[in-house]
Amino acid sequence: MNPIAPIFYTEEYKDATDYFRGIVKSGETSSRVLELTEHIIRMNPAHYSAWQYRYKTLLALHSPLDEELRLMDALAIQFLKTYQVWHHRRLLLTALNSVPAAEAELAFIRRAVAVDTKNYYTPGRTDKELLEADVRNNSAWHHRFFVVFQSGVRKGDEDRELVLRRELAFTKEKIALAPNNPSAWNYLRGILEYTKTPFSTITTFVEPYASTSRSSTAEQEIVIDLENPYLRKEGGASTMKAVEIWRSLANVHDTVRKKYWEHRIKDALSSIQK
Amino acid sequence: MTERHLRSTPTDGYATPTSHIQAATEQILRSHLPSASEANQGPVLQKNIHLQYLLRNLVQGFPERYTSQDASQPWLIFWTLQGFSVLGVGLDDQTKKRAIETLLALQHPEGGFGGGPGQAAHLLPTYAAVCALAIVGRPGEGGGWEVIDRQKMYKFFMSLKQQDGSFLVMHHGEVDMRGIYCLITVATMLNMLTPELLAGVPEFIASCQTYEGGFGNASFPGWVFEEDDPERDGSSTDSFNPSSPRPPLGEAHGGYTFCATATWVLLQPYLRLYYPSSAPAINRSALLRWLTQMQGIPAEIGGFRGRTNKLVDGCYSWWVGGCVVLAETLLGIGLGGDRRPEERGKGEEHAGEDGWDDVDDSLFDRRALQEYILYAGQHPAGGLRDKPPKPSDSYHTLYCLSGLSAAQHRVIPHDARRAEVLASWRGDIAKEKKCAGLAAPSGDGEILENLRREIFLDTLSWSEEEGTVKYVGGSGNRVNATHPLFNLTVTHSEAIMAYFYGQTLPVRKPHHAASTPPTGK
């Protein structure tokens, strides 16, 4: 066969993967397989079959899985963004099912994350630290949402009213620091919706950012539906106020989203007619 | 493009690493905009050098640095073949034959396709291989389609099924939204859908929508957070409780959002038929807002980013730009029915820079996206890219071209086409042609027959909306329309589905011939 779109491998890679194909065919599980799959993974960590076969071989040989974890530490740092690296660790930890191994893993992740703070598969530093370093880090905002609202109630956080007030205060402070930050606005909208808190409760905070008469047009760009408090009030007059802001976004401040804002206007007007 | 449009993203006097890299990127992008004197000519899609690039990859192959793609060989083939399709170039029979042979060598003896010869079966290469076969294959011996082993593929799919409705991407693999899209797309195209396969998939997808409106990679199965539950008896061989919380894992992301949304659209017939009441739901308005929020400002030449506060990247032209029409469809926005006849046909004459007249209902800036791809996405040596000054690569070449296509053509579900396909529908043949030996425990009753028909009709009713084409830089930059759910041309989508459902599709009337070049080309 004369394959299309071939890749020009090095001889070393070609030899190793040819050998690997032979092993898969024969079903061999031996220490030789562990050496070979490590060799392939080091040349190409995205070779998912080598990872899969390595894992099966480790189980078949009853290899000590904590030793495998330590061997993989260097690889994880080297290939920080390769999915397979982390998935392999997860399989090992699940198979080990041990508290010391889990603790060692957390310590390892902290070291690994110090290498790259923006890799969202590997949260380790607290989201608060990450947001202090960069208030625009969306992965950190997302992680914060998960930790505060979606992963069970932590000790000291039993009073959910208090938690909501704390989060609102935190987010407002971050918005005041740098208003042109969609991550923070999305978080604000997210916590209000999640806790079913009426948007009207933050009108006084939001209103200055939504003014069409602001001399600086900069912040207008992120002034969107949440940031537009008028819509959420009852009655036609406030809808007209919202429409006025949307028009200014569509025609002046955020022209890339012109069609979207016009859609919102149409939607709002048709809903008051009903 | 005038100066007043090019205000930088404000930093509020508070610079952080994100704002630094954003400012640097905007500066580079600005330098790729034409000067006032050049702007009149409009950008040119350098079709010839991109075709040469694709041809070099196809015939000569990929350089050594592509070793990292050794487990993604069907993708390299799909990206290249679909690149030719979008550029409107057909392949000779000899090349098609070689492509079919190359792809079939990746079929795993136990079902599905692997990323290379002798590699394990995996959902992602399975999708890429089937889509590539949709382009080069045909019915009959040597055509590739009849030797796709659907029975084993179905067993492979079911062996990956998890309690929460999701699927692993391979044995001992992880759950990944991309894998769900790949599986559902392949099962749709190859007439393999059953209620057993689809069970729990809508609930899983809905659980992956984040507070931002887009979708994350996966969600935590509920039991993760119940370890300390005193009611539990400690044995973790569990009864999965579908109503326990399943928070999304990972922030809203363009690639996962496309996969989730396209799958959600594909699931509509299943939701209609199998959930007479209380069907799971997603927040469609939040999805639409998130998608449109991802489009960059003029200083970013209107390209799309994949996550909030990240940089624009040409590949999201397709994953996010191409997803807008899917969200519109879910919301029932601009499906063409209410367009006044006198408005039809207006757009075609206004392809130039001036007199741009928006007669369509598309909710993103189609002109700006085309400008990003044409000004910033093209590498001068051929192929397309993330952004300057990066090199081109196979992946970005396709997804920039597909994004350009999504910005030029508006392809939406058409009632008239649906009625035509329905009139020719042969349910008895479709049932006979379903994946052989696939005995669903629930039987193959009327409801499954209806599901099969509705999926076929829903999927193949997508057509280009008349009078809505837009070519920045003129019609010389035209590329082919693609099917918004599959990223195949409508012609290829129809051919492979007609084969696997045993249908003969009615000829498309000229007014919705989505992938035929305009006359005179």
Please give a handful of descriptors for the protein shown:
heterodimer, A: 274 residues, 13 helices, 0% strand, B: 521 residues, mainly alpha, Glycosyltransferase, two-stranded antiparallel ribbon, 21 helices
Gross morphology of chain A is: elongated
Which whole number gives the mean pLDDT of chain B? Answer: 89
Please give the oligomerization state of what you see: heterodimer
Helix and strand composition category of chain A: mainly alpha
Q: Most extensive chain contact?
A: A-B, 73 and 81 residues
Total separate domains of chain B: 1
Strand proportion of chain A:
under 5%
Instruction: State the separation between the terminal residues of chain A, measured CA to CA.
Output: 67 Å
Distance between the termini of chain B: 29 Å
- The arrangement of helices and strands of chain B along the chain is HHHHHHHHHHEEHHHHHHHEHHHEH
Q: Give the tally of β-strands of chain B.
A: 4
